[in-house]
């Protein structure tokens, strides 16, 4: 396959991924907003509601590796479509859960809808399959960026759902999840029908034509993921970056609404603060991808660490000033974007070709698991200390990444 053909297929792949990502993330965006409200209504128990709130994150963690193995065996098209359709099934299960206040469909639906989170992460890696090394950051960042549209629209599905409720008598939450299910079904159909040729399989064929290639392995994903981290220092550095950024971002973001309301802030202020944080996470992604490609992944991660430091200092030193808290959350999102995009692009570049898809599923699963753990631990930590102490602990979590970025020999990271 010549470079012109490869470039054309890559552009087509990016368009398909971008459009399907918009539809899919509309559905995914319902879980952390309307899903939380539904969990509280159905369970009538704070403890059970808390467990239900983590179900979608747990689902993303559990399904990340199997979906990665599916991609390794059958290609991105089958894996991405299957992931979106599993998430759609979860959303459709939540329709009767909301309408009839059913607990078991509630947990099953939230668990399956986590598949959407896992597959939206896999989509960013799919964008790098055919990308040139000096364009992987930009290709990955584009898919991260378009996910902003769905992330913003998803939590607002209650508005059209109210109209459905008025017209049909369907519970407003049921209407929201019905729309989400249809959106994710469309995302799966777009990928399944249009992503031909499959970028992962085409890349594999190109490698085989170029010379003898190691056989692609489909099983033992956890062992291969562990072996990749043990034997590949650049992959290890990328994973530490991804996981560190995820834990710090989730821990601070999760506790900020509680901190704001405890200090007299309104629900509207919480909404604005979180919206600005999400904007910081995604709005600059194309610029971040360009910086990573132009100046290197290590440089981008270092920039992200500096921004994280500013965020933690702003929130930790001025915890009662809502202006500083908002600034802290914006910087938290931007810092996460720099580290996550650069770390993910580096990981996609340096991992072994025969393990690419399954190992990428492993890092996504671990990222979701670390995020869920951080969210779970942040509450008790702040309850026995303070928001400032939580910011300080988050800074400690970043120390290994700081050392790896500033002290480790430059050979540990590509394009340093």
TrEMBL record:
Transmembrane recorded as keyword: yes
Membrane topology annotation: Multi-pass membrane protein
Pfam families named in the record: MFS_1
Membrane listed as a keyword: yes
A molecular-function term among this protein's GO annotations: transmembrane transporter activity
InterPro entries the UniProt entry points to: MFS (IPR011701), MFS_dom (IPR020846), MFS_trans_sf (IPR036259)
Localisation per UniProt entry: Cell membrane
Protein keywords: Membrane, Transmembrane, Transmembrane helix
Transmembrane region(s): 12-39, 51-71, 78-98, 104-127, 139-159, 171-194, 237-260, 266-292, 299-318, 324-351, 389-407
Major facilitator superfamily (MFS) profile domain: residues covered: 13-412
Top-rank taxon: Bacteria
Record-level GO cellular component terms: plasma membrane
PANTHER family: MAJOR FACILITATOR SUPERFAMILY PROTEIN, MFS PERMEASE
Designated name of the protein: MFS transporter
